[in-house]
Amino acid sequence: MYCKRIRVRDFRNIECEEIEFSEGVNVVSGENAQGKTNLLEAIYYVSVGKSFRATQNSEIIRFGTKRAVVELDFDDGIREQTIKMTVFKEKKRQAEKNGVKIEKLSDIVGCFRTVLFCPEHLSLVKDGPALRRNYLDIAISRARPMYLHALQKHNYILKQRNLLIKNALNDRKTFDTTVDLWSEQLAHAAAIITKFRAEFIKKVDFHVKECFAEMSGERENPSISYKSSSKLYEEELFDLEKLEKQFTKLLRENHDREIYAGATLYGAHKDDMEVLLNSQEARFFASQGQQRSLAIALKLAEGEICYSEFSDYPVFLFDDVLSELDAKRRDYLINRIKGKQVIMTTCDKNEIREAKKISVSDGKYTED
Ligand SMILES: Nc1ncnc2c1ncn2[C@@H]1O[C@H](COP(=O)(O)OP(=O)(O)OP(=O)(O)O)[C@@H](O)[C@H]1O
Ligand SMILES: [Mg+2]
What we know:
The protein is an alpha/beta fold. About 40% of the residues lie in helices and about 25% in strands. Adenosine-5'-triphosphate binds near residues 35, 36, 37 and 38.
């Protein structure tokens, strides 16, 4: 995957710019608040169909204007393609692929594959499980439409089943008779999600271990594993039939506990990806630099797994990735990204020598 150029209009503080990228490392540098992250946000927008930091689409429209346009030319290894997205203040956004209007956004999402690291991703290691589940959901859905389908179904059934529990709690103290039907469907979807997640995490664990072995020698041993909240044994995690059976059993036999808790207690919605460093939970015991290294390693792993699925690396978007890393870790990362396309932001453009350098000032980009 190679992002050739981007044309941006009225996106954040970018008025009207066309920027060309090299196939290797591209460094976007400038002082604070000039538009470094805004450029990565525009590229990411075309890849995923949403921003990684705006809560509302209209936030990305430049102040005082009515719509933002991002048009990106990329080479997917077979041919050159163009995706164009227009975001309006007061009407539905529009998407085009190679000049043809696309009604369903899901038809373009994933065509242009990226892996993003931004400082907020430190929460992947530091914070609670929701963000880690989100990391898994995005990364797995990219290559497995069946996973996304199961996930949407799981979330819908969960809502319905939780309503039944609320009703039982409020008036009858017993479940509606339809509960077994919902439970069966939930067990089926949860089994698919759990199996895919467990397989993905096994690969992540392999890549993160490899990354740490090269970056910090033998001193730091990471371990990434699946943490199920549904009393599952390691060997059950990879077996759809066993998983479905176990979920069905748990959902059938614990009605009283669920009514007492007021929610569904078993399924894939409470699971987590455990991140350990030297056998200790990284979110409590790892240093800032170690947490950052782990978050970056998770992102590099995502890139490797994407490569194994598509025989092609995604474009790496790295926002402020080098800060807080010591010289050895920086060197490792810079070496590691050689040969792949990377678009990274930094305040100090001299940090990386062999790269295309782009300077930004007040939303205007110039090649050095
Ligand atoms: N909708 C918008 N319209 C116009 N300007 C905006 C909009 N949203 C954000 N900005 C401006 O964009 C600038 C921030 O850009 P950006 O986040 O890309 O900075 P940066 O170069 O990454 O800075 P830092 O080094 O601090 O991370 C801010 O000055 C902000 O006011
Ligand atoms: Mg920034």
